[in-house]
Amino acid sequence: MFTLETTEIARAIENAKALHPKVRMIRFGEYSVSGSTGNAYTVHCYRDNGQKVVDCSCPTRDGIACKHGVAAVSLHIAIAARKRAH
Ligand SMILES: [Zn+2]
Question: I want to staple 33 with a disulfide (CB 3.0 to 4.6 A). Which of 42, 44, 68, 80 is the partner?
């Protein structure tokens, strides 16, 4: 789990793009991301106390932005922006 406030999210998104993880939306705020070894992780994006929290089921330790979380959150941000536009 990591928060967007404590992460260099722009650079992390660039890194995640280079790895081309496959992201599938389960529902708004919940995503399934395939890692490089073919296994899929579930990522939750939500707000807690005003902080945007990203919670991935992979073993990356707390406070570190994993590529699955970053890939999911970049899709989440795009969808959220589209929702706000309507
Ligand atoms: Zn992960």
Answer: 68
